[in-house]
Amino acid sequence: MDFLAGIMEEFKSKIKTNDTNKGKVSAVCPSNIALIKYWGKREVQLPMNPSLSFTLTESHTRTDLKFKPKSDNDIQLKVFFDGDRKPDFEPKIHSFFERIEVFLPFLKDFEFEIHTQNTFPHSSGIASSASGMGALALCLTEIENILGANLSESERLKKASFLARLGSGSACRSIYQGITVWGKTDLIEGSSDLFALSYPYEIHETFHNFRDTVVLIEEGQKQVSSTVGHDLMKNHPYAERRFVSAIENLEKLIEVLKTGDLETFGTIVEHEALSLHAMMMTSQPYFILMKPETLKLIETLWNFRKDSLVPLFFTLDAGANVHLLYPEAYDSRVEEFLNTNCSPFRMIHDRVSI
Ligand code: DP6
Known about the structure:
alpha+beta, Ribosomal Protein S5, domain 2, Alpha-Beta Plaits, four-stranded antiparallel beta sheet, 9 helices, 36% helix, binds ligand DP6
C-alpha cells in the first residue's frame, strides 16, 4: 500500500450507514493565532512549512448540526448564521463536504442544517474559517460516532483535525487547546502535514495564561483572501527561503518555549509576522496589507517596550489588525498602553490557556 492509500485507509469511515436516525450534535471550536505562520500550500491543503499557534479561549464558533435521513445520492445542506439562512455560505461548505465525503460516506445519506454563531463580531477581522471549519469537523466526527464508528476521543480529535484541514488549513490547529503544531518536521515528533497535534514539549510557566489583545485597525472583509495569498507563494521569488526561515524560527521557538526567554520569543514572533507581510509585499501582484495605523502602533509598542521593559510583543495576520501578546502578569501595565495608544480602535481581549 503506498503512503497516500495508507492514510486514506486510516481516515476512511469504518461505519456502514443505512441509518434512519435523525438528530442534532453541537460543538464549540476556538479561533487561533499563529506564531509561526502557515503561508504557502500545495494540493490538497498541505502546508509548505510547519506552523505553530496559540489556540484562543474567548473567540470561538458554536455550531449545531441537524441531520435527517434522505434517499437520493447527493449532498444537501443549508447554512444558518446567527439564525438567518445564508445561501452565500453554502457553496463553500458544499465543496468541503464533497472533498471529505470519501472519509465520511454518510454525508450523502442525510440532509444537514448547519446553525452557526461566533462569539466575536462578524466583521471584526478575526478569521472565522478556522473556528467554523473546526466546529463543523467536530460535529461530523460526533455523528460518525453516533452511527457506530466507535472512535476514541483522541482518534476523534485527530480525525476532526484532518477533516478541518481540508476545509481551511489553519482550522486543523484549532481542534486542540493551548499550543498546537501542524506540518511535518523533524523538530516535532509525530508531526504531520495532514493534521495538527498538541505541542508535545515542555512549556515554561511564563507562557501559561498569555494574553492576545486584538486591536481592530481595520474591520470588514479581508483585502486579500487566504486562498489568493497562499497562491501567491507559488512562483514567489523568495518562497524557498521563507519556508526554510519558518523552520529556523520554529527551532528557536521550541527552545524559547522551554526556557521562557521572552525577549527571544518577541524577536521570533515579530520576525514571523513581518516575514508574512514581506511575502505579500514582494509577490506578483504585490499587496500592502498594513495600514499607517498598523505601523504607528508597532512603532509605539517598540518605544513603550524599550522604555518600560514590559514584555509586550505583536503579531499580525494577513491583514492590518495587530495582535498584542503579553504575559497575564503584565495586564495592568499593558492596560495603560492600551488606554493611551489604542482607545480609538475596537479591541478583542483574548488569551491562551495552557
Ligand atoms: C496568515 O488557513 O485561512 O492566518 O488553508 O486557504 O483556508 P486556507 O488558509 P488559512 O491561512 C491562514 C494564514 C495565516 C497564518 C496562519 O494562520 O498560520
